[in-house]
Amino acid sequence: MKKTILFLSIIFFTACNSESDETKKVIVSDQAPQVIGPYSQAILVDGTLYLAGQIALDPASGQMVEGGIEVQTHRVMQNLDAVLEAAGYQFDDVVQTQVFLSDLNHYKAMNSVYAKYFDKSPPARAVVEAARIPRDALVEIMMVAQRP
Questions:
Q1: Which of 53, 112, 120, 132 is the most buried (most CB within 10 A)?
Q2: pLDDT digit string (tens) for 14-61?
Q3: For the chain, percent helix, then strand, then coil, each to nearest 5?
């Protein structure tokens, strides 16, 4: 009887642990900058992809790209695209973004680049001015993508 209870307990705990591992998957792209803190580039849970904020770091050098808000926004979107692609997603799957600007006066210029990445229906979005963004970036963008 004790062996049966022990066996059933092991099966139960193994099933519980394997289920949780299958529903949460860490996504890593070597085409995007490596993380600069204790977080993942993205996490996939039940068809929803949560992308960490990206700043305008060059994936090869790990250094901030030179240039203004347009150049930085383009690099950020390229970084996000690399992470989306690593998970098998694309910009059409993005349902929500959060944009952090170092200065809201960059809003129009950021939008001119951002809009090029969403030809069909753009996702829901919030844009806020942040007192300071890591590495003194001008822009940081995070996303959520969803597949049925």
A1: 53
A2: 444 444 556 899 999 999 999 999 999 999 999 999 999 999 999 999
A3: 40, 25, 35
Please name the residue that has the structure tokens 């300071």: 132
- 19 is a domain residue: no
- In eight-state DSSP terms, residue 47 is T
Q: Which residues lie closer than 8 Å to 102 by C-beta, 6 or more apart? A: 129, 130, 132, 133, 136, 137, 138, 139
Return the structure tokens found at 18: 């394997």
Q: What are the tokens at 13? A: 């705990």
| Residue 109 domain-assigned (yes or no) | yes
Considering the domain boundaries, does residue 18 fall inside one?
A: no
Judge whether 65 lies within some domain. yes
> Can you give the CATH number for the domain in which 86 is found?
3.30.1330.40
Q: pLDDT per residue over 55-91, tens digit each?
A: 999 999 999 999 999 999 999 999 999 999 999 999 9
Pairing outcome for strands 94-101 and 124-129? parallel
Nearest of 106, 31, 121 to residue 71 by alpha carbon: 106
Structure tokens at 33: 């900058």
Do 97 and 139 meet the contact criterion of CB atoms below 8 Å apart? no
**DSSP string spanning 4-17?**
HHHHHHHHHHHHHH
